[in-house]
Write a structure and sequence with these properties.
globular, mainly alpha, disordered C terminus, about 270 residues
């Protein structure tokens, strides 16, 4: 039991390290991070205990499970948490993905009329379909224009991006970080806990490389992903059409990381 706790703590420390680095750069203090951890820990304990007993857990059960004292548990349970853990792609990203798919199938669709009166394909129609009519097309277009992913001219709009990468919008970037990292960890944790079905989670790596070789591999991954991305978007659109009453979601992602190593790690490797 002790080994299991030590292993888990070691894994948690490694996982949260990049997030704490982000927090320090953004000016977060210990008490703010501590408040988030306590709230989320309590929320997860409520879910876990409810699933185990098919009932709402009481204050004592939550206190024992989390190690948070009863008084604080009572206060936090009654309070409305400001931490919304649910996330989805912003509407502008949804319409951009659909637009990129159209443009990949027919380059003429890189440029679209903003609106059309004869049922022809337009940005308005594409945006309405992508957001299921929940967001006005002009709001999504303004977002894409602001982020430099499209340009507008004389009633037309032209695609200027091969992916939704809002690097000049901090709120969007933090949203993507939290959404994608959370989903990746959800899959990994599900696999560790033995939940079914087993989720695909694979990676390949090498060390002792020069930076130029790392970047070459990086570009190979980007090219392969671009092709797979188009195929997946097409299949996802088919899946959506076949699931009018569905309540499941799926995400397929990819990441690449390369970085320098410390002096201790960068030791010459013996040739065999």
């Amino acid at each position: 039991m002790r080994d299991r706790l030590d292993w888990t703590l070691s894994a948690v420390a490694r996982v949260v390290r990049p997030l704490l680095r982000l927090g320090l750069h953004m000016g977060l203090k210990y008490n703010q991070v501590d408040a988030v951890v306590r709230s989320v820990l309590l929320e997860e304990a409520q879910k876990m205990l409810a699933a185990e007993s098919s009932g709402k857990p009481n204050v004592s059960q939550l206190s024992i499970a989390t190690g948070i004292n009863r008084k604080e548990v009572t206060t936090r349970v009654r309070a409305t948490t400001p931490y919304d853990l649910s996330a989805q792609l912003p509407p502008a990203a949804q319409v951009l993905t659909a637009w990129m798919q159209l443009a990949a199938e027919d380059a003429a669709h890189i440029r679209l009329p903003i609106v059309s009166e004869d049922n022809a394909l337009s940005f308005e129609a594409l945006a309405t379909q992508a957001s299921r009519g929940n967001v006005h097309h002009r709001a999504m277009l303004d977002d894409l224009l602001r982020l430099g992913m499209a340009v507008e001219s004389q009633g037309y709009v032209e695609l200027k991006s091969d992916g939704f990468l809002p690097s000049n919008d901090l709120q969007y970037m933090l949203g993507f970080l939290s959404e994608h990292t959370s989903d990746h960890l959800q899959a990994a944790v599900s696999n560790v806990l033995g939940d079914a079905p087993k989720m695909l989670e694979r990676a390949v790596y090498a060390d002792g490389l020069c930076k130029e070789e790392c970047e070459r591999i990086h570009q190979i991954a980007r090219l392969r992903w671009a092709a797979l991305h188009q195929e997946l978007v097409k299949e996802l659109n088919i899946a959506v059409a076949r699931s009018p009453q569905g309540n499941q979601r799926i995400k397929v992602g990819i990441y690449t990381l390369y970085e320098g190593t410390t002096a201790d790690e960068a030791k010459p490797r013996e040739k065999t």
